Amino acid sequence: SHKANDEVRDLQARIYQRVSLTLLYSARFWVKHLSKSIGEGGELDTQEILDLVCRFLKSTRSLYWAELLSLTENLPVGRDALIEFEHLSHVKVSTPIFSAKLTHTHG
Asked: Which of 19, 36, 50, 105 is deepest in the core (most CB within 10 A)?
């Protein structure tokens, strides 16, 4: 959006109406579940899962995830998830949204 979150009328009410707790939980804790489930054997191997997540994170679709975290004041969770994912995958995920915004938050 072209408006800052605090400029949107009734933003918290809109979020509460449109964002399920399940979606918010998933957006916040996906990397924790990923770290516990990779390498357990199954249909997809660990590298294949990491590659799929990496493709998502480098795509424009990850902007929806970032927007949800921003709207719910969880951007630091996103930064931490990316750091943890980078440790799991040994791949640097370059996402300017988190690095630019969060450098100032926690820099």
From this structure: 50
**CA 88 to centroid of chain Cα atoms:** 15
Question: Which tens digit of pLDDT belongs to each residue from 15-68?
Answer: 999 999 999 999 999 999 998 887 666 666 788 888 899 889 888 899 999 999
pTM of the model: 0.77
Both tokens of 20, joined, read 């399920």
Q: How far apart are CA 73 and CA 91, in angstroms?
A: 26
Angle, alpha carbons 103-80-49 (nearest 5°): 130
Distance CA 39, CA 35 (A): 9
Please list, in sequence order, all residues whose beta carbon lies within 8 angstroms of the beta carbon of residue 30, skipping any fewer than 6 positions away: 81
